[in-house]
Amino acid sequence: MALLSMNQLAGHLNTDIPSRKCSLGVFSSDHVLHCKPFHVRALQGPLRSLLNATTHTPLSVRADTPSVAVSNEVRSSLDIDWDNLGFGYHKTDFMYVSKCGSDGKWDEGELQPFGALQLSPSAGILNYGQGIFEGMKAYRTEDDRILLFRPEENALRMISGADRLCMPTVPVNMFIQAVKQTVLSNERWIPPSGKGSLYIRPLLIGSGAVLGLAPAPEYTFVIFVAPVGNYFKEGLAPIHLKVENTYHRAAPGGTGGVKTVGNYASVLKTQLSAKKSGFSDVLYLDAVESKYLEEVSSCNIFLVKGKKIATPHLKGTILPGITRKSIIELAQTLGYEVEERAVCVDELRDADEVFCTGTAVVISPVGSIMLHEDRLEYANEGLGKVSKELYSALTSIQMGQSADIMKWTVEI
Ligand code: COI
């Protein structure tokens, strides 16, 4: 249950509200209605969203509440250029925080004004990297509904990562409810339909103090959000990759297949040096033979050859991307033969199209790949024929523009 005083909300949103302290979690639907003319109108989206998120009828817009649509006025008061959103950090209104002590039980969790976390310098995450994260997106549809994409998949992936890093697992239901609350309370930050999405970052970290190497005695589950547009500066234009010959991202038996924070720190050096040489990112090879494709720093990779689509199979060193999984399922529905297998780096030479997938990236066409001394060129116009078909099929479901035949979206 979220406990947030009206004063905190008022201060946060710069709105004049009587200084009555209340627990939003105990509002009945009567109270919500009673508050409507005054509080809800005054605060527009966020308070109403919070009310919706913390009463227990919530998570869908009720017919008896005012329109949940965020007005253009509210949107333009945010210092954001909605037409040019990249993938940068923006401070939003609220974050979700829950803690779990050595009894292994999560507290009720609460929405707090977005702000710094207090951590001991001895926290497990700071010293030994005991932490994992997720990436998800909420989309605003043309008729102002808010959709999440396959949130249960993220919840399940976080459970397997928590297990690998000896952290308590966040139950699926708790995870999804927390995501919904965080999105609704930050509703005004969800970009207008077609201009981007609200990126959701759930984090699970060892926040308790340790000195010797051991699991932390306390864990914190945090969710924050930020409005985003394209991940790569190229947008939907093709990206340019370089096959990495010296460093590896993951090794068999390691943690490449879970979303640990350390997997991302370790690719920064190669990524930065590739960027300095004019590439968009780095494509990694397997650590045993340096012969098979693994993934790009922040996304999975696919090769198209005629009606066949190949992607490296999951064997513990590659992130089991939810966009990856969705593209495989969509491609099969669209009549492609999808092969999840060892993909030899030399197959890059014959591919008709190459594209990357990820939550942040969505689908990004690859225009060229530097393999040793050879520059392999693919479609440089934008999305190739197959990647375009898959991109349209995926994003139209995510954005609520086509019938969700796969039952992947969750409306909140
Ligand atoms: C995502 O795609 O959501 C990720 O977590 C990758 C990250 C590097 C932005």
TrEMBL record:
The UniProt entry, under Pfam families, shows: Aminotran_4 (PF01063)
Question: In its keyword annotation, does this UniProt entry include Amino-acid biosynthesis?
Answer: yes
Which InterPro entries does its entry note? Answer: Aminotrans_IV (IPR001544), Aminotrans_IV_CS (IPR018300), Aminotransferase-like (IPR036038), B_amino_transII (IPR005786), BCAT-like_C (IPR043132), BCAT-like_N (IPR043131), BCAT_family (IPR033939)
Q: Which UniProt keywords apply?
A: Amino-acid biosynthesis, Aminotransferase, Branched-chain amino acid biosynthesis, Pyridoxal phosphate, Transferase
Q: Which SUPFAM superfamilies match?
A: D-aminoacid aminotransferase-like PLP-dependent enzymes (SSF56752)
GO terms of biological process kind: amino acid biosynthetic process; branched-chain amino acid biosynthetic process
Query: Where does the record place a coiled coil?
Result: none
Identify the EC number(s). 2.6.1.42
**GO CC, one annotated term:** cytoplasm
* NCBIfam families (UniProt xref): ilvE_II, PRK13357.1
- Residues modified as N6-(pyridoxal phosphate)lysine are K259
Cofactor needs: pyridoxal 5'-phosphate
GO MF annotations for this entry?
A: branched-chain-amino-acid transaminase activity
| Catalytic reactions of this protein | L-valine + 2-oxoglutarate = 3-methyl-2-oxobutanoate + L-glutamate; L-leucine + 2-oxoglutarate = 4-methyl-2-oxopentanoate + L-glutamate; L-isoleucine + 2-oxoglutarate = (S)-3-methyl-2-oxopentanoate + L-glutamate
Q: Tell me the protein's name.
A: Branched-chain-amino-acid aminotransferase
Q: Which family, according to the similarity comment?
A: Belongs to the class-IV pyridoxal-phosphate-dependent aminotransferase family.
